[in-house]
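Residues determine shape. Next comes a sample protein:
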Amino acid sequence: MLDYRYKTFLVVANELNYTKAAKKLSLSQPAVSKHIRYIEQHLNTKLVNYEDRQLTLTRKGLFLKKKIEELEAEIEDVKLHLSDKVPERHVTLGASRTIGEYFIPSYTELLNIPDLKIDLVVDNTTRLLNHLEEGKIKYAFISGPVDTEKYCTRPFYRDSVILACSPEHPLAGKKVSINELFTENLLSREQGSGVCDSVEQFFKKHGLTCDQFRHNTRIGNIALLKNYIAANKGIGFLYAISVIEELDAHILDTITIEDVSFYQDFYLVCDKTNANKDEIDKIIHLFTKNLDADL
């Protein structure tokens, strides 16, 4: 078992506030400070800095935090295997909003596996990658460009990026050049979303930017964005998987861009130091086994 003072350090490292950590641990603030000083003296290194009323971790403090979290997970795993209970595996996953709202409910069995407890965090790509680096999630399902040098990535699905519009829009169902679009109002997902990153990379590749549209309004909610597009308030780029129902019901239509095929891979992403090939293979299998039948 870990020394109780290391558990105090972990709470302080997560809260970055002595008062909040003390309250969470039901200890006095001086007691929390004493625990931190003990560990620093024992390890003969500086773990925290406190300047301008702001608590931060040193590089070695960040390293220790990561190692304590790994040790706690290992200890729990040992306890489960030594007990008589059938061990229940537990994994925290992140999913981009497109994947979490449109892919998972229809095409996966990942949330219905006996003896596997999953906590699912749904957020945009940037925040999911931050959660991954902070150790808050183990894997992230990302619907957008990912730095393959920095992370371990495995593509599991490719979707087309479509330019959606209202059926009442003058360009609905038509094929136009990119330059013809710049008189339009563009309705975009928020900065940090996968489709936003993908669209910006697409325009940059063609020597263009989204700022060339007459207006570029960002909306951080897929359903609301589709509602505004359907009401003919503008046009917007979305993944095809997120507009299947609206296209089938003729609530939305599409505009085709001449000489352009626009696709984006979706990835399972994890920290390179935390890559487990067998586990990744199993998650990918459970995540995609219904694709051939339903897509």
Remarks:
- Residues 173 and 255 are 5 Å apart (CA to CA).
- The chain has three domains: 4-82, 89-157+265-294, 160-263.
- The longest helix spans residues 59-82.
